[in-house]
Every structure is written in structure tokens, then in C-alpha cells.
Amino acid sequence: MLEQCVLQEVNYTPAADIHIKNIFTSAYVNSIINIINIIIIIIIIIIIIITTTTTTTTTTTTTTTTTTTTTTTTTTTTTTTTTTTTTTTTTTTTTTTTTTSTSITTTTTTILLLLLLLQLLLLLLLLLLLLLLLLLLLLLLLLLLLLLLLLLLLLLLLLLLLLLLL
Description:
Elements: H1 2-10, H2 14-51, E1 55-61, E2 93-99, H3 103-165
Antiparallel strand pairs: 1-2
Helix pairs in contact: 1-3, 2-3
């Protein structure tokens, strides 16, 4: 009986309670989806950074040149043999070429980082909405408590009137 009076006084319906619960559950599900999206974006950024590191190509060229000169001189009186050997060697020329493909990847990573920031902002807004809903729920509970106190006071007044009449 008292419960029906309170419900009629506030015009509170169980459907309103179900609606508030639905708002909370949908906000909770949306926050979980946003967190999953943020994790996916972070994984994509890590994959792009790993695949677009600087590529270094090393080319080694080795050139060897050998020159041999032999001179033989013979004289009639005395036999003289002169041998001259000249060796020239040139080796190892190393050329290093560095190729970097970062212009495309930097733009994609900046776009992904901006999307990540947008996701974080949406998540913060969603959390603020949840806090506002919690405050609203607390205010409704306080209102119900005040109405219950008023009803108790009315009942006490009725009891006092009954006691006075007797």
C-alpha cells in the first residue's frame, strides 16, 4: 500500500527504470567498442612503423688489376739476364646506397594518430555522459527519499490526529 502511494505520488514506472538501465548498458557497450577500436588502430600503427623502416642496400665492387712486365737482355760477351716484375693491385670499392620511403607512411601514421585522438575524445565524452547519467540517477533517488520522508511525516500526522480524536 505504502509502495503504491509512493509510486503514484512520483509517477514512477518500472518502464522508466528499464529505460535508464538500457541507456547505461548501451553506453557501456559503446565504450567497450571504442576501446577495441583504439586497440586496433594502435596495432595498425605499429605494423606500419615496423614495415616502413629505412631500407639500406650495400653494393660492394671489387676491382683487381695485375700488371706483370718481364724484360730480358742478352749480351754476346757476357750473358746478363735482367728480369723486372711490376705488380699493381687495386681492391675493394664499397658503395652504400640508402633508400627511404617515409613520405607516404608519415601521412598515413598522422591520419591514424588523428583518428586515435578522435576515438579518445569520443570515449571521454561517453564517460562524461555516463557520469551525468549517474548524477541524474542519484538525484532521482534523493527525490524518492524525500518523498518517502514526506509520506512518513504525513503518516505521523495522521497518527497524531487519530490519537487526538480518541
